[in-house]
Amino acid sequence: MKKPGALVAAAALLISGCGSSSGGSESQTLTVFAAASLTESFGAMKTAFESAHPGTEVKFNFAGSSSLVQQMSNGAKADVFASADETNMDKAVQAGVIDGSPSLFATNKLTIAVAPGNPKGITSFAGLVQDGLNVVVCAPQVPCGSATEKVEQNTGVTLEPVSEEQDVKQVLNKVASGDADAGLVYVTDATSAADKVAEVDFPEAATAINNYPIAVVKDAPRTDLAKQWIEFVLGEQGKAELQKVGFGAP
């Protein structure tokens, strides 16, 4: 996968425009399929991108990366795909739904989300196996679930979750609503949740860091606009929004 450094700065590209709409000309919609963990950061980028591209509306489909690959493979139309891991991007490439080479734009790692104040006194990954604790995780095919499995393998600690969710936001919501005592989510999700959950970091998370790739979808209805969105994400404004919630650089 190519690194983002070779790409032109986002600001210059935004000035060049998408060649479609200024002064009230035709409107256009960019459809972005993105991992659920990108909800807040991509949402923040939407306003700035639309402002720089008058007449453009960015629409998102946030879900687990594996679900998004399945949707595209079944014919769902999209312009951009942003995955929470390289495994699911590779599946999209193999399925023939990606145009060109994906670019890495961020990294992410797991943390333990618990209720505010940490009433169960969880202090470590191994502490998630204590009796009577309701733990939720992502399903194995979802990037956050795959990362959880890697931590289990690296630590020798096998969790017994009460449920396996299809994306990381579902895990977060179960903890925030009190339906679970603890859940494995990304650092960025815990940060975005603010005071709805508390975060328990654990060092073993560093052994299962996910790389996030982004790419234009094959036969995208708005190919040029899709490339400009990707350049925006890879540019300085995009990096700043990603860093706000804790994403790392690739």
UniProtKB/TrEMBL annotation:
<feature type="binding site">
    <location>
        <position position="186"/>
    </location>
    <ligand>
        <name>molybdate</name>
    </ligand>
</feature>
<keyword id="KW-0479">Metal-binding</keyword>
<keyword id="KW-0732">Signal</keyword>
<feature type="binding site">
    <location>
        <position position="168"/>
    </location>
    <ligand>
        <name>molybdate</name>
    </ligand>
</feature>
<keyword id="KW-0500">Molybdenum</keyword>
<feature type="signal peptide">
    <location>
        <begin position="1"/>
        <end position="21"/>
    </location>
</feature>
<feature type="binding site">
    <location>
        <position position="65"/>
    </location>
    <ligand>
        <name>molybdate</name>
    </ligand>
</feature>
<dbReference type="GO" id="GO:0046872">
    <property type="term" value="F:metal ion binding"/>
</dbReference>
<feature type="binding site">
    <location>
        <position position="37"/>
    </location>
    <ligand>
        <name>molybdate</name>
    </ligand>
</feature>
<dbReference type="Pfam" id="PF13531">
    <property type="entry name" value="SBP_bac_11"/>
</dbReference>
<dbReference type="InterPro" id="IPR005950">
    <property type="entry name" value="ModA"/>
</dbReference>
<dbReference type="GO" id="GO:0030973">
    <property type="term" value="F:molybdate ion binding"/>
</dbReference>
<dbReference type="GO" id="GO:0015689">
    <property type="term" value="P:molybdate ion transport"/>
</dbReference>
<dbReference type="InterPro" id="IPR050682">
    <property type="entry name" value="ModA/WtpA"/>
</dbReference>
<protein>
    <submittedName>
        <fullName>Molybdate transport system substrate-binding protein</fullName>
    </submittedName>
</protein>
<comment type="similarity">
    <text>Belongs to the bacterial solute-binding protein ModA family.</text>
</comment>
